[in-house]
Write a structure and sequence with these properties.
This is Dehalogenase. InterPro entries: HAD-like_sf (IPR036412), HAD_sf (IPR023214). This protein is an alpha/beta fold. It folds into two domains: 129 residues, HAD superfamily/HAD-like (Rossmann fold); 64 residues. It is 47% helix and 12% strand. It is built from twelve helices and five strands. Strands 3-2-1-4-5 form a five-stranded parallel sheet, with helices on both faces. Helix 11 links the parallel strand 4 and strand 5. Helix 1 crosses helix 5 and helix 3 packs antiparallel against helix 4. It is globular. The two termini are 19 Å apart. The model has no long low-confidence stretch (mean pLDDT 95).
């Protein structure tokens, strides 16, 4: 029987995504549509894959058509984002329990170099440092749901029963296609994860 490798996403799985929380504080709801339409989406993807530096990301953050619409400066967004981090306590306790019982647990996150800001917060930083490996798209040059992302993990941890926990349905779907045991995490119903794990892996917690 293959031993399990528990693979956790970060944003909206271990912690609440600080980007959305910061945006709500800095921008009235009536301007959210302008923000959504005004971002240069490729810049975000390039930053998450480590293809551009932070200053390039800031410069490309908005399309030219939206740079003078009074939208929040990306530097202000970053400052607000990392003024506070909100862990999802139920998931953190699960990870701690899995590690305490000797299971292998890794992180698999689509995130930019800003992950270093997250790790400055003691609780989440200590937890992430305790994991067996950290996979960040900015250091891999590839993002989920690309199969290469999952294959990278399979190469580093061969022959495992891969247990994938992520809030993004497409990421979960592709993990299932890769024959991983995939669970779509709902941050509004974190207790469902414990039910899934205890059903699939009795006595794992």
């Amino acid at each position: 029987m293959r031993s399990p490798l528990f693979v956790f996403d970060l944003m909206d799985t271990l912690i609440q995504d600080p980007f959305h929380l910061a945006l709500k504080e800095l921008l009235p709801r009536e301007h959210w549509e302008d923000f959504k339409n005004g971002r240069e989406k490729q810049a975000f993807l390039d930053f998450e894959m480590g293809r551009i530096e932070e200053e390039d990301f800031f410069q490309r953050f908005y399309l030219d058509s939206h740079k003078d619409k009074g939208l929040p400066h990306p530097k202000d967004l970053k400052e607000k984002m990392f003024s506070k981090i909100n862990p999802i306590s139920e998931t953190l306790e699960i990870v701690k329990s899995l590690k305490a019982k000797g299971f292998s647990v890794i992180l698999a996150s689509n995130y930019s170099i800003w992950y270093k800001e997250v790790m400055k917060f003691q609780e989440i930083g200590e937890l992430l440092h305790s994991l067996d490996a950290l996979y960040f798209s900015c250091e891999m040059g590839v993002r989920k749901p690309a199969q290469e992302y999952y294959q990278w993990i399979e190469t580093d941890f061969p022959g495992k029963d891969y247990v994938f926990i992520d809030d993004n349905p497409t990421n979960v779907e592709v993990a299932g296609y890769m024959n991983w045991n995939a669970f779509k995490f709902n941050p509004k119903k974190p207790g469902e994860l414990k039910e899934f794990l205890t059903e699939q892996y009795p006595n794992c917690l």
